[in-house]
Write the structure tokens for this entry.
Amino acid sequence: MGGPADENGYPMIESVKGGVVASAGFRTASIHCGLKSDGASRDLAVLLSDRPTQSAAMFTTNRVKSAAVRWSEKRVRENNIRAIVVNAGNANACTGKRGEEDAERTARVAASLLGLAPSQVFLASTGIIGVPLPVEKIEYGLRSAVPRLSGGIEAGEAFALAIMTTDTVPKSVAFRFQASRKQLTLGGATKGVGMIAPNMATMLCFLTTDASISQAALDRALRDAVEQSFNRVTVDGHMSTNDTVVILANGAAGNELIEEGTPDYATFCHTLDIACLSLAKMMVRDGEGATRMIRVEVTGALAREDATKAARAVANSPLVKAAVNGGDPNWGRIISAAGYSGAEMEEERAKLWIGDLLVFDTGSPTGCPKVELAAFVQKPEVHFRIDLGMGAESDTYWTCDLSKEYVSINADYHT
Amino acid sequence: MGGPADENGYPMIESVKGGVVASAGFRTASIHCGLKSDGASRDLAVLLSDRPTQSAAMFTTNRVKSAAVRWSEKRVRENNIRAIVVNAGNANACTGKRGEEDAERTARVAASLLGLAPSQVFLASTGIIGVPLPVEKIEYGLRSAVPRLSGGIEAGEAFALAIMTTDTVPKSVAFRFQASRKQLTLGGATKGVGMIAPNMATMLCFLTTDASISQAALDRALRDAVEQSFNRVTVDGHMSTNDTVVILANGAAGNELIEEGTPDYATFCHTLDIACLSLAKMMVRDGEGATRMIRVEVTGALAREDATKAARAVANSPLVKAAVNGGDPNWGRIISAAGYSGAEMEEERAKLWIGDLLVFDTGSPTGCPKVELAAFVQKPEVHFRIDLGMGAESDTYWTCDLSKEYVSINADYHT
């Protein structure tokens, strides 16, 4: 592998600017075409690879899928993607046959402007469900955007802005790393701060890399990275119809083809894992109305699945999340959420830490003073650890607190 | 069966006052013993049957159970219960060995004051988790309450007040009905407005009847009634450690013993079903911070289980519940919650009604105007019906909206 390594023996990776266009051979442009009602914010973005790509993607498992998801599932199977068109402000979901026609028309218009076939255009949509897509706006939006395609840092930052809905900050990352003496780059941007639930969420995530990597290796790497990042965050347990994570690899870096099982593959996966986890945590930190991030760690589980169930139940409990919002160490709610999660557990074996403090020890409260505990619950990042005392498996979820602001945002989003 | 019948052929049942002591041969007393911090509200209640009872009960399925639940599970198996002691303000859960000793001491003190064996005393607790029960307060509370036991209407109403925690109104019912030419009574009281989830909730429900009924019939009738009432309501999907529904039947009405499969059994079940559903709906209507009740009806499901899953997912979605709080007909959230519920469904076969209006028809929006829809979402009782178009099975859940008030209540409950 060569080059400097971190404490785990992985090659050092360096954070760089530019998001999705930090990787060589990618350009983007984004504009306001009228889908967002403020009349100003960017709501349409195009991302182009100047050369052919290998691609991999994961989509919502919701039985109700947006027209964009249905379209793009086919494009990933064909593995001949050159461009991505994303719109924010309208999900084009629950829109029936008309929605499918609108998606196809979007791809056709973009393809003709870019000199591609429609089947080379990947689509993603996010926003209100059940309202027909104003496809004429998208059409003139595309005509305005395509001539402005650029690989500059500002264009990359604008991409992350264009895909936002109720997000309050753009979310992008890019990392440079070495593989076989070549410098490679991996960049990404994500959106999604509500309707966030395990197994993806109302989230869109676009990743690019200039690495040369086989489709099989890319697909495996993406699945593993998503499982440990986007599938471990939750804002409100509501899974969307539009969730999409996609990665395009265009080989512009000129490295030797990365295959599964090689040292370069390990380096690539390490970088992709860090990128996905960074983006996932940005989503939670920006969760609708969130004031604190909560890390729920479950250890000592009999099976990995038990750890997952217990961590997810705690992370999804509105009672736990409201208590954290109040800075209140109401730890009984944490234990009782684990108790109903379906995880194998016995109260007499379980322990709970809030921050550094043990509050519940094998069935009994430790008598830890409330004021000490409150200090840990009032931090920007709150850490709960439950040790089930049943085995050696563990898992971690990230979530945010539940605030009045979450209710405000979601009571009024539609109108 | 005799006597006047309703339109389904069931004997008429008459609503009466008195709650748990409307049934002959029951007495109650309740006082403030210092568990509720306001220094005034009743927080301890005793309910006594003057004669032996048949009993049946259902408890939380949470793996973490209160000391009261552990104690009372044994008492129901022995089927020799004469008295119930309930306290509100402290759950006596996650309190370890000390919690069990405190529960036993409560039963011992009550038994000695009532001239019973400790094993004849059923216990229930509700309130904060993880704080040792102030058992001395309970002890002098019992000494003050027992001499005041009464069968009067006011005592019955006070019982419903004493079991409240964050409830804003007391919840009790009583019904008189005829069986084999005898007049029978069934009464009940319930509490619970947060931590309410299917398969019971932070809820306590106490039912009494002066019917003579076999233990087997009583147990069957209770399970069936709970399944269709308390197990079909949800406030926040968080299941508590203390949930308890118990019924005592003391035979004071002198009717012929009711056995399963008889006309009298059908009448008894009908009355019990109505009592449980009435109490369950009162809980939802008083849900923490609730401003509207929501009925989620799913029809046309392939299997009953699919209907249950879809109805539950919609009823538990914070996004759906926040939209209803805003009086906002954001129906895409309803369809997408059904979509991720795990129920067998195809978007192209599904229909959705809000109130009387069809908004989504076999895959497409009907174009129903938002202002007409909003009128139905702004009613005190909102009705959603999803027809999955897959089969003939159905199910219904009741829930409430999610308000800023819910967050306030739960951010500050502990401290």
Observations:
- Confidence is low (pLDDT under 50) at residues 197-201 of chain B.
- Residues 293-411 of chain B form a domain with the Ubiquitin-like (UB roll) fold (CATH 3.10.20.340).
- Chain B has eleven helices and 17 strands.
